[in-house]
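User: Please predict the structure of the protein below. I'd like the answer in structure-token form so I can feed it into my own downstream comparison script.

Assistant: Understood. Taking the following sequence of 626 residues as input:
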Amino acid sequence: MGVIVGTAGHIDHGKSQLVKYLTGSDPDRLKEEKERGITIELGYVFMPTPDGGVISFIDVPGHENFIRQMVAGTATIDCFLLIVAADEGIMPQTREHLDILKLLGVENGIVALTKCDLVDDDMQELVESEIVEYFENSAFSEASVYRVSSITGEGMEELRKAIFSLAEETGQRQTGDRFRLDIDRVFVLEGFGTIIAGTAISGIVSTGDELELQPGGKKYRVRSMRVNTSGDVKTGVAGDRIALNLVGLHKDDVQRGSCIAEPGYLQVKGSLDTSLTLLKTAKPLKKHQRVRLHTGTAEVMARAVPVETEVISPGTAGYVHFQLESPVVVLPGDRFVVRNYSPVITIGGGTILEAGTRKVRKKYAPERTSHLMALESGDIESILDELLDDAGINGVTLKSAEKSTSLAVDDILNALQEMEKKGKVELIIDGSAHRAVGKNHFDKACERLVSSFAGHHESNPVSPGLQLTEPSRILKEYPQWFVKAAVNRLMESCELERREEWLALSGHHREIPSGYSEVVEAIISRVETGENMGVSVVDFQDSALVRALIERGLLHEQADGVLVTSERAGTLIRKLIERFGESGFTLGELRDFLGVSRKVALRWAEFFDSRGLTNRKGDRRFCKEI
């Protein structure tokens, strides 16, 4: 694991020469760079630290024509090494590079005052004072200045120690998140194929892992990798410079600006909602202004739409929606830089708050602003509140919340547990998934169930309750996991209980109410008069009461709505066992035994089959022991 240091500064101020002196390696690798004496592409070199670690340098171009490359390199660094030549002082690209560093949130760094061998002490003092004054009251006010010369070696060892201290102070990146690498270099290596390289933003990668390339979504297996200065290693982590050899990858499949990550992690979106700061030197940012948006190592064209106002004024901040001309790989929390379409100069930048957002409508601007304020503040509960409101009865899972917010799963779960304690959320474990739904939705569903059960008990006091499937019918518009959770919660609170195949409110009597005893006995006696023929259900006016007796198992309903008593059914099956034993019986034998017509015998046979009291094999039925 290492720390990434990015250079910055005006052209011809000695960035590459300084880095070469410190590391022993020339970051300029292209023939054209060596011929012209300027850096055109990003350069990568490494310097070991006394504690066994490694510092990776990303050397960026200083010419204004290559700012695109500079932003791509700076996007993944941990701290900066600003180079200012003692014979020229702060120049235009010095200022633009510092603006870019600030906009990308890179505020930790030091300054190397180079070419001190070319000027006297007074000039060095003057330029250093200029730097200190320029940094005053800015994010870089703590940056120390070191006077050096890459020719004589003056101050270089002191600078080296300062860089070690800077790296130690910056610290290494956490590896807890899922693996992600922003690609800044693609090349073909003979005998190996296409190689992609970049800085690991988060997570851990190992040989054999399957990774997803975005945009595109194709998956590749890691054949081998190089980490920092080491080849043929098995694992790379956040903060490492990693070169990956992926099985089946072709050069045409990938470019600078692409990302490689754990499958399902990255989002490829065509629009962004952001918090943007416009530089004091910029012109007002107008509605639908065409700009160049840089994020990660990618550059895309976009239309900027301020959310709250018609324009963003120079030196101020505001929420801006970007409609991209081509999709880009982003996650909320990523930093970005905006440059003018023409002339191509840096005008602002900030933080991506949400990706894949709808177009801005003035009518909904206040709600959108409130939402973006919650996202920007990092108020997890407010963010989850909005997410749950949008989800309604469908709720959210930890996985869906992570994807929507890019917050860590543990942070989301902790916040939801706190919200549950406050009575704002109902947390539900559905198999291996954690689900959350607004407490108001959950309580409303539970109240609706209790009300439905109470209504049923009141209108059907003899009924033992409602079938186990009835809650799904009552809450038919709710997801099944929601209904199940509501029933479980009512059972845990002892408001609802299961009675064999029925659900009933706990206060509902288990036995037939005494006031119904006589009418129940009369119905059963009436059915018994039908003997083996049974009695039609239409012969009874109180069909609800008859249905309740069927539910309690005192009556049985055969085909064609014919009722028989449970006592008669039990007696008949016992007699059939005694009469036919293991030999079984045919339909004709059943008809004769019961003394009924073939139609009635068939009704009994189908009834016994449906209750699992008989098994049919061919034309014979065999009784089960009871």
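That's the full token string. The longest helix spans residues 439-459.
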